[in-house]
Amino acid sequence: MVKKQTAGRDNLGSFAPQFAELNDDVLFGEVWSREKQLSSHDRSLITVSSLLTQGVPQLEAHMKIAKANGVTKEEMVELITHLAFYTGWPKAWSAFNVAKEIYSDEF
């Protein structure tokens, strides 16, 4: 079961309430809850891949979500290694630094 998301309201609720609602209720509420179509584990792999290729700050938050959704350290390492050849070495290095922090309890 997908955890209820409140990041939109917590961070932007008073500034951009419609965006916050769409983030929490539609993206994380409706789309992420479609587990019959795609598991949270797989959605996390896809999301982290997309964010890694873009080099955006949300990567860290979604790596944490990925870990909570059962993505293992080994899977994350393989994902980053694979994408290094498609998205660029510097982005992979940055992603590995984030992953090392998030998975630090596993090595």
H and E string: HHHHHH
Rounded to the nearest angstrom, the distance between the terminal CA atoms is: 28 Å
Low-confidence stretches: none
The CATH topology of the largest domain is what?
Answer: AhpD-like
Name the structural class: mainly alpha
CATH homologous superfamily name of the largest domain?
AhpD-like
CATH architecture of the largest domain: Up-down Bundle
Average of pLDDT:
94
In terms of quaternary structure, what is this?
Answer: single chain
Global outline: globular
Summarize the biggest pleated sheet. none
Gyration radius, to the nearest Å?
A: 14 Å
Number of helices: 6
User: What fraction strand?
Assistant: under 5%
Number of strands: 0
The number of domains: 2
Share of residues in helices: over 70%
- CATH class identity of the largest domain: Mainly Alpha
InterPro entries: 4CMD/NDH-1_regulator, AhpD-like, CMD-like
GO molecular function: peroxiredoxin activity
Protein name: Carboxymuconolactone decarboxylase family protein
Domain Carboxymuconolactone decarboxylase-like: 17-101
Description:
The structure is a single chain. The chain is globular, with a radius of gyration of 14 Å. The protein is built from six helices and no strands. Helices cover 71% and strands 0% of the residues. The protein folds into two domains: 1-37, no CATH class; 39-107, AhpD-like (Up-down Bundle), CATH 1.20.1290. α3 packs parallel to α5 (73-87) and α4 (58-68) crosses α6. It is mainly alpha-helical. It has helices at residues 7-12, 17-31, 40-54, 58-68, 73-87, 89-102. Residues 17-101 form the Carboxymuconolactone decarboxylase-like domain. GO terms for molecular function: peroxiredoxin activity. It holds the Pfam family CMD. It comes from Pediococcus claussenii (strain ATCC BAA-344 / DSM 14800 / JCM 18046 / KCTC 3811 / LMG 21948 / P06). This is Carboxymuconolactone decarboxylase family protein.
